[in-house]
Design a protein that fits this description.
By secondary structure, the protein is mostly helical. α4 packs across α11. The longest helix has about 40 residues. The radius of gyration is 23 Å and the shape is elongated. The mean pLDDT is about 95.
Length: about 300
């Protein structure tokens, strides 16, 4: 039985890192980093500098010669910057897709403002699923929804109100479960994609990027659970499951929403990369994420 780990002090954490070969020049600054960011979170960013990386099962935690705490800090702040950049622009894609789904589905069923709970519109297995039912119940705490239901004496609010309060993942599942193939194609065509299955796969990438950005997860070492298919976003080659591939998909969809924002976003990404002058860190970013400045 593996012993349960105990909490350690900042001083103990610094000593442990030094014992494992990390160079820490400024102890006071190191204490500041560890209290500000946290030992566990920073571990994701010094992991690539360990001798046994990327092995997780036989990880010995010892660092390559010359590894500094600053290496991990620079990688952390690069990841922090690109998360903030993506979060800023992904919201444009999310709002655009949500709006289009509401508009086209609601006008496909103009006499049925509550089409999102109708088994003739959406697959019954999805409608009756516990997750979606909990989402519908959760809408009742929203003041706008509660007021609408009370005023009109209905069980649900119209789609253009209800869907505004649903998570992006739920919005994507609603699209995926539409029974009308013509409606699904009509929406995917708006983004230049004819195959609805492939459209869903691309949008899943956007969802993952959104969730990673919103919840502070590591992006530079992202591994997608499903390979990105080749298509309108180009040939992905070795980037099918890496951040660089996800970034290409993100850039494509942002271009469909606002070409001007793509140019703005590219400049933001280049600035984030240029703020990492350390060749060691830059090489890790390129090797693990597949992201290259001339490809941004």
């Amino acid at each position: 039985m593996v012993a349960i780990k105990k909490a350690t002090t900042i001083e103990q954490q610094i000593s442990l890192l030094q014992e494992r070969g990390m160079v820490i020049v400024d102890i006071e600054k190191a204490k500041e980093y560890l209290l500000d960011i946290g030992y566990y979170r920073l571990g994701f960013y010094w992991f690539p500098f360990e001798k046994t990386y990327p092995n997780l099962t036989l990880r010995n935690h010892y660092f390559n010669a010359g590894t500094t705490l600053e290496n991990a800090i620079k990688l952390y702040y690069f990841d922090f910057d690109i998360r903030n950049i993506l979060q800023k622009y992904i919201s444009r894609i999310e709002i655009n897709f949500r709006t289009k789904l509401i508009y086209y589905a609601s006008n496909c069923y103009p006499e049925n403002s509550m089409w999102y709970v109708d088994s003739t519109v959406l697959n019954e297995s999805f409608l009756n699923g516990e997750k979606y039912q909990n989402t519908l119940l959760g809408l009742n705490i929203e003041p706008v929804i509660k007021r609408d239901i009370a005023i009109h004496n209905t069980q649900y609010a119209p789609a253009w109100k209800a869907l505004e309060f649903m998570p992006f993942g739920t919005i994507l599942e609603i699209y995926r479960n539409l029974k009308n193939p013509k409606l699904k194609c009509e929406i995917s065509y708006l983004y230049g994609i004819s195959e609805t299955t492939k459209f869903c796969t691309y949008m899943d990438v956007i969802r993952i990027l959104r969730n990673y950005s919103a919840h502070g997860k590591v992006l530079f070492d992202l591994r997608l659970p499903k390979a990105i298919p080749d298509g309108v976003c180009g040939y992905m080659a070795e980037n099918k499951t890496r951040f660089a591939g996800a970034y290409i998909v993100f850039k494509y969809f942002l271009g469909k929403v606002s070409p001007n924002r793509v140019l703005e976003m590219q400049e933001d990404m280049k600035r984030a990369l240029n703020q990492v002058p350390d060749d060691i860190v830059t090489n890790i970013i390129e090797k693990k994420s597949g992201l290259k400045e001339n490809k941004i």
